[in-house]
Amino acid sequence: xxxRNAYLIGGSIRVNGTVRGGLLATGGNVELNGVIGQDVEVxxxxxxxxxxxxxxxxxRYRVSKDDVHxxxxxxxxxxxxALPVSKGPGAFGLLxxxxxxxxxxxxxxxxxxxxADAAAGIxxxxxxxxxxxxxxxxxxxxxxxxxxxxxxxxPLALIASLVFLTLGGLSEVPVAVWLGERIMHARTPLGxxxxxxxxxxxxxxxxxxxxxxxxxGLVKLVATCVGFGALLLAAWSARERQVA
Length: 244
Hints:
Radius of gyration: 23 Å
Helix content: 55-70%
Structural class: alpha/beta
Strand content: 15-25%
Oligomer: single chain
Distance between the termini: 60 Å
Order of helices and strands: EEEEEEEEEEHHHHHHH
Number of helices: 7
Number of domains: 2
Number of strands: 10
């Protein structure tokens, strides 16, 4: 028995016990044959509700209709909703993901201290990183638009746009490093290898979380905002050190 909500990820998921709260399940094959007190949301290759399945709330699933099997003995108190099935990322999406991970590895190897400082900023000043991640992009976009209006400021606007897009593409790197540090603590090697190992572990976790429906989009949004702010703060600190 699980007293609250259950969040399950796996190749094959089977729930025969009782979940008093809600259930979010993502897997290749999902089989529910127990009692679930609240709403259920499933995303996977197949879904089966056994004869003993009892759902106290609504059932929402992202599964092909040909792979959904609901036993006549199963009971759903709320509504049953079939959500659109998301298409797989395909070969291009897979290459893009792998390419982004490799690009992050290269950048961490080239400037490990910068990303380590950005990750430390998330740990030491989380609120400041969030505020910078939310307000920074707004101010930068406004500055780019104002600069682009004038002919003289157009080249500056183009350069600022390039920097803005680059920071946006790298925004999840410090979050991955920070997440890896929280998991590994002092078990990683010293030097630049430490930052690299932390990034690789944290990056894999973000990739796994990113494929979860609803939750994945929220995780990416939060990671992008926090990471962007951490990069801005780290860049500002680096500038202050050079001036001093």
